[in-house]
Known about the structure:
This protein is mainly α. The chain is built from 20 helices and 2 strands. A two-stranded antiparallel sheet has the order 1-2. Strand 1 and strand 2 form a beta hairpin. Helix 5 runs parallel beside helix 8, helix 8 packs across helix 17 and helix 10 runs antiparallel to helix 11. The termini are far apart.
Amino acid sequence: MRRLRRLLPVLLIVATFATTFVIRAYHPISRSPWWIDRSKQFNEAIVGRNWQGTYISRHPGFTTMVVGGLSLKAYDALGEIPPFNAFYAWVFPEHITDFGRHVAAGVAGLSLVIAVTVTLSMLVLKQISGWGLTAVAGGLLAFAPYFVAHSQDFHVDGMLCSLMLLSGLLTLAYGQLRQRRYLILSGLVAGFAVLTKSPALFLFPFTGLTLLTYLAIKLHAGWGDHADGRIAWVLREGWRDLAAPLLIWLVMMILPFALWPVMWVAPRETLVDLFFKTEERVINPHPGPRFLFGQVYNTERPMFFFYVVTLLFKSSCVTLTLAILALLQRTIWRRRVSGPVTAPTFWLMITYVIFFMVEMTIGAKQTARYILPSHVMLEVIAAIGVLSMADLLKGGLPHRWQTAAYAVPVLAVIFQGANGIFYAPHFSAQHNALLGGNRVAQNAIELMELNESSYYVGNYLGELQP
């Protein structure tokens, strides 16, 4: 029995990793050409030692091009060698073109990295709370339909939101546990997130807010004990708990840029160009039309609640219900059950979701997938909600039935998986059933953003071939 208990955490982590990877790598449906072309250009620049040529996109997309480029190289070198050919045969959908094979091979590499970052995020949650939150959050994230959909795309957004989640949770772990290794790791992961896509700069003010929150708590607790020399004490604690840690975090965030070859030859020019191109994205709307509540927006931005509506419809009915329960627990039932995380950690997670939506709303370029970082943190909040509900039910049951309350989190993960797999492999076709599902969503937001129906068209055309 003791041996089984020791094995359970290992089995949980392995199951989280395997499920997250398999559900994303199997038969990806998206065929966006941009990042596969950029990954090939990146490979050519590395082989030709053209360090300037490794700056290809304003995103900047460095991590996607590295992982994607390595995945393409691996497929070209190993695709015909057993057992790799069996793996790629499992990955590829039917009637796939040569271009599609390269896309699917690249998605498999991206899915592997996303599975690693999700698994590491679960290990951080273990330090923040315990194995209960680790298990439930891992299950909800593994099957979250919209997260899965954009992890199946050879693009930057799936990688971005998983890296941002890991960095944000590491920051929260530092705030709660005060162990510097979490701060250092958070900065390093944030650096790779920024190298993926510039909106990850949000992690800098979020880290500052987290440090400021815990500093305020410390100052409030010790305010009465420092009547003499209070200003000097506040300044000293401000440096120790806010300014110095934030400086360390910022230095660690910058370090990954040293891995980008263009920084070896033209760092200033590249950073200036990135800044102005990012500014351009904030000022100028997206060139494609946007749809919201029956109105098409061409050159103007959608209404200010575009991302709120998108988040509500793209989250699953399980996630939205459990996130609401988490808020109710912290506002109405907080005296009856404490919840699996501390109050500052919980409200900082809520702040992460809201403030990232605010950041994206400020920019003129607005697209549904840009809200993914808020979406994945909402899954963690949902896990907190179902565990809080289980604790609440446990307190109201007779002693011999209290263990049964923990069937609720298990059922939540099962329902999340069933809800997502029902739409497989077209996970982005899922829209929140609590709000009316696809019947209502078609009149509210954009659908089919990842060419979902092209899978069936490709199969149909393939079957017509003599």
